[in-house]
Write a structure and sequence with these properties.
about 475 residues, alpha/beta, eight-stranded parallel β-sheet, 16 helices, 17 strands
Amino acid sequence: MINRRTLTKSLGAAALAVSAMPATADTNRRRYLIRDGAVITVDPVLGVLPRADVLIDDGRIVAVGPDLPARGAQVVDATDMIVMPGFVNTHHHMWSALGRNFVADGFPYFAAKRATSTLYTDVDVYRSVLLGLAELANAGVTTVHNWSNNTRSPAHADAELRAHRDGFLRARFSYGHVDQMPRDVPMSFTDVDRVRQQYFADGSFGLVHLGVALRGLSQSTEPAFFADMDAAVGRGLPVAIHAGQAPPRIVDAADYERRGWLGPRTLLCHYVTALDSDMEIVARTRTGFSWSPHSEFRLGSSGDPRSALLRFRQAGVPVSLSSDATSIAPSDVFETMRLVWNTGIPWAGTPTAGLPEVGFRDVLEMATLNGARALGLGDVTGSITPGKRADVILLRANDINLAPGGLIETTAVQASTANVDTVFSDGRIIKRGGRLVHDVGRIVRDARASSLRIRREAGGILTP
């Protein structure tokens, strides 16, 4: 695995000018006792504990229960707080996080992406990914799938990985294609192999593991896509594919299964066009599935996406949640959960009639344990279970928007980013008392500088 000296040399002086956190920040793993919180474990055995402690030692959850001994532990008082697993975002294009406000009336997502994607330098993507990671941490997200679908050069890949090192979150980095590359040209895996050898020789780079994000048939010809799939599967890498939000149906699950492309190491996103038979195959093969509700409503053009969501659940597919791109949806998982809860209802005269509605417990599982499982991390994170890593968040339940309290799971879904008091990532405190360890001012200033330069170069409606 690459060391700090080698990484520093490979990135260049420009990217090194950015610091992720104040020099005084303490992100060491210690022994902590989270005391007297209302604990939503999302563990099928432990359930919800109205008052309990969580003991963390060296990044691992050691015990969960009432009145645990605090010997040798730093006590974190969770009175009037909800303690729960950190959220998992299974589909986030982090390279464009700083472009959240590039869209406008008459200038939608894809137009904005076409106008700007070629203008991002490696310094820009470092700043963008770090901005995104800090925003996620602030909102209680402890694991993210960085769907890097504009990896323009080896320097860009290195910059994204350095941002991950500085961002402190668990992640999958899915190395992707160069945006706007010709549809009939297969993706090059030369640099994927270099990144794998240089950073992931031991299987992970800190809290990050490696995957590949492929274009799918929406952005490539069939021969090019098949070549991409063969290259990824042949290397044993986890694969992520956009499965389509509008006709035509570009993913035939039966065909993919015959080719050996489905299973726990494959993640399909959107798939609004799936037939019931496709959904049954996704469930049977235990293929990962990511649902981006804001994006499905905004970019889908084939009708109400709620039908697909309810039918996926009926087929037994564990749905995970994601935000797609920041110019389409916020990185606020609370808002995502509420959107799914509010829209996840059957209605008469449609194929959803009689299907179970989505409940509070359902969306909490989608935002945590289901996401961890979709990324192959179900034994690592996603629930407050002894033996798992300590990805844990604390919500202030007596804040004005949540007071005066009540049912614990309901309260958690009704919360917002403003209620996130404390965030543990792999046993490190990266947010405490509502404040991140990151130098947020510098992150924002650097992202703003990159955004302004990209807007000037893009011109037109984006001209500052």
